[in-house]
């Protein structure tokens, strides 16, 4: 539970920081927290289903279609969270790439391996 809360905090901070560099509007910090939670829930439950149904396309694109799936997850979370606005699909792709790489690096630094 402690590691999940740290990951949620890392994701929230990264969402706020990345939104300053991209044209993503965040009205308040509560929206960023909800976005981080929504992304974690969607990545846990919806992403495996999407990956399963798009296995042929993913194999043909050598895995690059997973970037599209990540962007779809971001746009779905944007749809459900009122305080976040991701304007274009390209912005969602860039946001998902930067968020994933940043989360990987910061989770390696801050999360216990016990």
UniProtKB/TrEMBL annotation:
Stretches that traverse the bilayer: 5-22, 28-46, 53-74, 86-106
Pfam families recorded: Phage_holin_4_2
Domain of life, per lineage: Bacteria
InterPro entries: Phage_holin_4_2
Keywords of the record: Membrane, Transmembrane, Transmembrane helix
Entry annotated with the keyword Transmembrane helix: yes
Official protein name in the record: Phage holin family protein
Lineage of the organism: Bacteria, Pseudomonadati, Bacteroidota, Flavobacteriia, Flavobacteriales
């Amino acid at each position: 539970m402690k590691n999940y809360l740290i990951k949620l905090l890392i994701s929230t901070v990264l969402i706020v920081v990345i939104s300053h560099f991209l044209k993503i509007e965040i009205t308040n910090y509560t929206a960023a927290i909800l976005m981080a939670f929504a992304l974690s829930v969607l990545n846990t439950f919806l992403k495996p289903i999407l990956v399963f149904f798009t296995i042929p396309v993913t194999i043909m694109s050598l895995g690059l279609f997973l970037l599209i799936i990540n962007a779809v997850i971001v746009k779905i979370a944007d749809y459900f969270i009122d305080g976040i606005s991701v304007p274009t699909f390209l912005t969602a792709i860039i946001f998902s790439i930067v968020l994933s790489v940043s989360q990987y690096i910061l989770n390696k630094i801050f999360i216990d391996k016990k």
